[in-house]
Design goal:
The chain folds into two domains: 60 residues, 434 Repressor (Amino-terminal Domain); 109 residues, Jelly Rolls (Sandwich). Helices cover 24% and strands 28% of the residues. The chain is globular, with a radius of gyration of 16 Å.
Amino acid sequence: MDPVTAKIRTIRISKGLNMRELAEKVGCSTPFISQMENGKASPSIATLKKIATVLGVRVVDFFMTEKNGNDIILRKEQRIHMKYPQGAAFIELLVAKVSNKKMQPIWAHFEPGDGSQGLYSHTGEEFGIVVKGSFELQIEDEVYLIEEGDTFYFSSDRKHGYRNPGATSTDVLWVITPPSF
């Protein structure tokens, strides 16, 4: 079993939810939850966010491992690395601990075609700068192409999603407040 889906299963059981109840609250099928927990299906980031919300945790809680680090310095090799379930995309947390912090900086890397695979929303605001490549950001019905050096800022309460529409990899320095990953 994948460590991420094993944690989802453990948290689901600790919250007293069966697969059917989780599926209903997330808006997916019970067989999908079963396949996901057994490593036969991979949830999108949008689905992971929904599962985390239903379970009352953050997405990062599914990926957490024991790491060294303190509240001031985080060495590159100590970052929490969260690989997207599909594709080669990943996110790295740029601070050791997000509890009691008002913002969450992340490094996001997307290969061509990688992205959230759906829209989602949550409380807060988001800011980012495209460091390399291009990035497509969808806010509700509007789609924005953001290129290297461009920045974005929006309310996370609005349904949003993203993807790399280009032919090369994209890197984004992203800051979310309050921490939601």
